[in-house]
Each structure stands twice: as C-alpha cells, then as structure tokens.
Amino acid sequence: MRDLSMQAPLASTGVSAPGHEYLVGRGVPAARLDTLIPLFDLRYDDDERRVVFPVRESGLDLGYAARAIDPFVRKRWLSHPVEGGHKSVIYEPDRVLAGGDTLFIVEGPFDAVMVTAAMQPGNDSIATAFFGSLPTDEQLAYVTAAIPLYRMVYVMLDANVYGRCRRLAEQLALAAGSPTVGSINIGIENRDPGATRFEELEALVEFASASWQTKIRWMWERRLVFAGGGKE
Predict the structure, then answer these.
(1) CATH value at residue 113
(2) Which of 36-41's residues contact partners 24+ apart within 8 Å by CB, and which partners?
C-alpha cells in the first residue's frame, strides 16, 4: 500500500473520480460530499481502487484505513501502516475532543462519514469510529474524556451486535458517571449506518440529535417519525 502523500484527494474528475462516484452511489449527495472531502481529507488510491480515510491525531499522520470500491474484493478494508486497524486511537480524535451537541460512535470511518453527511446544516454534532466493534481501553478512554463535552453520546454499532452496543453504552455511562450516554439499535433491516438508505439515516440522525433517550430502537421510533411527518 502506498504512502498517504501519493494518493489524490477525491474529486468528480480525474484519477480519483471512481472513489467519488462510489460514495455518491452509496447515497451521499454530491453537494454534501464536496464539503466532506476536505473535512475528512478523503483520498483515493487508484492502484488499489480504494477510498482512503486518513487517521490523524494532533496534526500527526498515523496512517489510514482504505475501503475497496469493487464488490468482490476479498478484503474490503485494509489499514496502513499496521494491518488490523488503528486501535490505539478513535477516528478524528481532535474533532471529538472539541465537543459539540451529539457524539455518534460507530464501527468504521465509512459509517462516520455517512453519519456526518446525514447531519442537517447547523447540527453541531460529531461522528467517530472504533475501527471495529471491540474497542480497546485506549479508545474507551478517549470517549470517556469526551462525554462531558456533549449533550448526548450515542453508541451506534452494526445491527448484528446490538447487545454489545448496549453494554458499551452502559459501560461508558458508568465510567463517566453520566446519564447522557445511550445506544441506538438501527434495526436488522439496516445492517449498519453506512448501508442504511440515506433518507432513513438523515431521519435517524435528526431524531437522535434532539433526543434525551438512553435507548433508541429505530425500528420503532421510525414509525413515529415518518407517520408524524406524513411520509408513510
């Protein structure tokens, strides 16, 4: 895998166009993607055909995680320089420790970018990721330190590990001595935040950004949201 400096920023034209098209195809509106590219410094590896998510802390490059855009690649995710991920840090730690309204904690950087894309303008919320569903003590320490900086903190892991998701939220609430940590069950039909239909993800993020609930069961809450908005 190539060094980060050798990879082009995502763009709608040129060698990085396939990565741009991939994210638009996954549901991110092109106008919002143009804002997200510099925010996350998203790049494209044209040799590997992967969207690249740089991992940094305090301005220091720690490497990156890279998502294959082709459907039948054996390893969807690769990490550089350490195979297996960046488990000593969370995704975008500097933005997380700056605080905000709602902190969404997901599994992977792609999920974090999708959740950020789903935020409405003016929503002072942040999305971060554990680079998997099993956080390390170092990662939990980052989040515990950040909890007082937010109105609410929601753990929103993939649908197939909701039990783990709920237990993590309870563990973090206990560690921080705070009642403002909750979990989101996105519903098995959605699989994970990054695979959720974009309009659905927008509604979920908007709902959670105004909620004080410590357990959001989206398969139930969505009925109230969409029925109340006249969408069903």
Answers:
(1) 3.40.1360.10
(2) 36/113, 36/116, 36/117, 37/9, 37/10, 37/11, 38/9, 39/116, 40/92, 40/109, 40/113, 40/116, 41/9
Whether the pLDDT of residue 6 is over 60: the answer is yes
The answer on pLDDT for 198 being more than 50 is yes
Cα–Cα distance for residue pair 213/205, rounded to 1 Å? 13
Full residue range of the structural domain in which residue 48 is found: 1-86
213 and 124 within one domain: yes
CA within 13 Å, CB half, 17: 4
Q: Do 104 and 208 form a contact (C-beta atoms < 8 A)?
A: yes
Q: How far apart are CA 160 and CA 185, in angstroms?
A: 9
Q: What percent of the chain has pLDDT over 90?
A: 85
Task: Please state, rounded to an integer, the average pLDDT across all residues of the chain.
Answer: 93
